[in-house]
Design brief:
Oligomer: single chain
Strand content: 15-25%
Shape: globular
Structural class: alpha/beta
Strand order of the largest sheet: 4-5-9-10-11-13-14-18
């Protein structure tokens, strides 16, 4: 085993221990034939692939999901998984009563229901509307995730089976608008990850590509893009890949794709003709942050292909944090880095924190200068 592969292996062993996942990471020589086949190609990359084949510990299902084709498909797919019937995916009392230390264990469950709210929220960044779509939450456990702030411990993956209703509203809204609208369909989930379970992203692109008006966009921290590469998308779907320094990914973004895999995914998407964006997000001001983010931007320049470098636009987002994050992370991940810094942060509403203005301004100035060195002609849509 190569030196860097062994370091990656040790990291993944620590990650599995930290997350308490149901999937077992075997010592070399212990693996089943199936896992050996997965790991022979690229050791770490395929460990993540094994993780992405999510097998829930239990299904929590609303009664009416069998009325939808996707609901029936998911019930058949997970026929051997214990099932709990629920009245409302938004209010699972058993989950709400769990302690913060059970956060990682809760992420092993899968909630399936019908999305009742279809309110489009105006947005003025990279889309016209934030749109409720086919999932909410995630199986990964990024320590800063704003969904944790919104849902507390209940930021587990919820799948919504009434996808036809949701996409139909997007199409009708686009058709009835005088301007060409862009809809953000992944503001509270990761559709690349979700697609490995539902195939919803493939279904969405295939059913949206030939409509006469409108565009879709979503962000991702995952690299499992191969299923959507051959699709005829007609340039109507913009995919924005979030990146961070490898050290930040390792210590904070548990269960997401490694940096090199995300960059490879960007290159694949660019070659497949997708419009692409890159989020440097969230910027976390750890002790050596300037070195880390300078090296990250240089890494992007050296490893993105020419198509990606020519067309990519950038978004830069500084981390916000909250009392809820701190409470959960302290109990769920007691050995992890503490992201709260009273020296660097100030209050931002009740129980929320952001970097102090002068510190954030210094950070923005530094990042814009570094970006200008390597990507002088690429648009930075915003810095927040």
């Amino acid at each position: 085993m190569l030196k860097n592969e062994w370091a990656d292996y040790k990291y993944q062993k620590q990650l599995f221990h930290l997350r308490g996942r149901a999937v077992k990471l075997y010592e070399p020589g212990e693996m089943s034939n199936f896992e050996n086949k997965c790991l022979k190609c690229k050791f770490l990359d395929n460990i993540l692939w094994v993780i992405s084949m999510f097998k829930p510990k239990a299904l929590y299902c609303e009664n009416n999901i069998e009325n939808y084709a996707l609901g029936r498909e998911l019930l058949e797919k997970y026929a051997d998984v214990p099932r709990v019937m629920i009245d409302n995916h938004n209010n699972i009392e058993e989950m709400r009563k769990k302690q913060n230390k059970d956060f990682a264990d809760m992420k092993q469950n899968l909630i399936i229901g019908v999305r009742k709210t279809h309110k489009f929220v105006p947005n003025h960044k990279t889309s016209d509307f934030l749109v409720p779509y086919t999932s909410s939450g995630c199986t990964a456990m990024c320590m800063y995730c704003y969904l944790v702030c919104n849902y507390n411990k209940c930021a587990y993956l919820r799948l919504f089976v009434n996808r036809e209703e949701m996409l139909d509203k997007i199409i009708r809204t686009a058709q009835n608008s005088e301007k060409d609208l862009t809809f953000e369909i992944g503001s509270n989930s990761d559709l690349i990850l979700e697609n490995t379970i539902t195939n919803n992203l493939v279904w969405t692109i295939e059913n949206f590509a030939n409509t006469s008006k409108g565009h879709l966009t979503f962000p991702t921290k995952f690299d499992m893009v191969d299923d959507i590469l051959p699709l005829k998308h007609n340039g109507k779907v913009t995919i924005r890949v979030s990146v961070n320094p490898e050290e930040i990914i390792n210590k904070v973004e548990f269960g997401t794709s490694r940096l090199r895999n995300r960059v490879q995914a960007i290159n694949k998407l660019a070659d497949a003709g997708y419009p692409i964006g890159i989020l440097i997000a969230p910027v976390i001001l750890v002790e050596n942050w300037k070195e880390l983010y300078s090296n990250l931007i240089k890494y992007l320049y050296e490893n993105l292909n020419e198509k990606a470098k020519k067309q990519a636009f950038f978004e830069i987002i500084f981390m916000t944090y909250s009392f809820v994050h701190k409470a959960i992370n302290t109990e769920a991940f007691p050995n992890a880095i503490d992201l709260y810094s009273p020296e660097l942060m100030r209050g931002r509403g009740r129980g929320k924190y952001m970097y102090k203005d002068y510190i954030r301004e210094e950070g923005e100035k530094f990042l814009r200068e570094e970006m200008h060195k390597y990507f002088p002609h690429n648009q930075i849509e915003y810095v927040v």
